[in-house]
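[stage:ingest] chain + small molecule (MRU)
[stage:ingest] validated
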Amino acid sequence: MLDQTRLPVEVAYIDCPDYKTVAKGIKELWIRGAPAIGIAAAMGVALAAQDIKARDFESFYKKLLPACEHLAAQRPTAVNLFWAIERMKEFALVNSGEKLQRLKEMLVEESQRVLEEDIAVNRAIGEYGAGFIRDGDTILTHCNAGSLATGGYGTATAPIRVAIEQGKNIKVLADETRPVLQGARLTAWELMQDGIDVTLITDNMAGYFMKKGEIDLAIVGTDRTVRNGDVANKIGTYSVAVLCREHNIPFYVAAPTSTIDLKMPSGDHIPIEERAAHEVTEVFGKVCIAPYGVKVANPAFDVTPAKYITAIITEFGAFHPRDIRKLGYKNIDLGQLRINL
Ligand code: MRU
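[stage:predict] done
[stage:export] tokens:
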């Protein structure tokens, strides 16, 4: 795994020989971003399977479950973690008739499919999302919903990448995204690597640039999108959405369906991860920027109510948030639901 906690100072990789190391990587943000967490978890399940000694499927599966539970316990908000683990469990069950050695190989292949599908899904999000971007636009994004957060193409960055491929001249403003600076450390870094015009701002500058008319639209990612169209994403996303409404700026959410949780009725039910105080009081675990012993709150995510969201862009098209629940209907005509440009 690329250790994202060390970017942009260092490009360093960590070997993950077993599922417990993968779980540690998820917890400690070596790998982060909802889709990437899901991919890592799927690979973690595949790794766990390799080490199981069992005579029959039943005892194999029984031994796989604690590893699944351990992986699932690392972070609560991004639904991809649970989605990917459930997918792997289901895959094992469906293929329970296979010889165990073959099943172990098949689980590795399935985890690789989770990765490959994610890249294809992001590309489709890009194709739909690019339609909302005009030549010359400046796009605000928050946190990192780019290559690093996914299989390699990004969700919020996908429409930007496709728009650029279409020949549009695009600028990106990246919120630094306190406390752990995914915008500054990761989004700015990866966009620069790809030659995309990015300007870094601190989180409290977005309103200033909106008021000056220098932001045309915002695109963010999501950790969990629920039935009523509410969206949980990195802390600070809600403030961006409210600012966008005040300034009449479209606010888009790029959401692969792996981040959509139709079982959850509204954002009020989404578990919000509370992270360690040192993320707020220290920079890079080195420099202390707050008085010793100060009380700290550190919710890692917030919920943006559906009413602030212009459209949710999925691999099946862009939808009004109120229509997201209909993606779960059988035989639904997506053409009727899509926001067509
Ligand atoms: O705490 P993180 O870095 O895992 O939070 C990531 C985000 O909030 C992303 O915006 C979200 O997962 C979407 S990534 C495509």
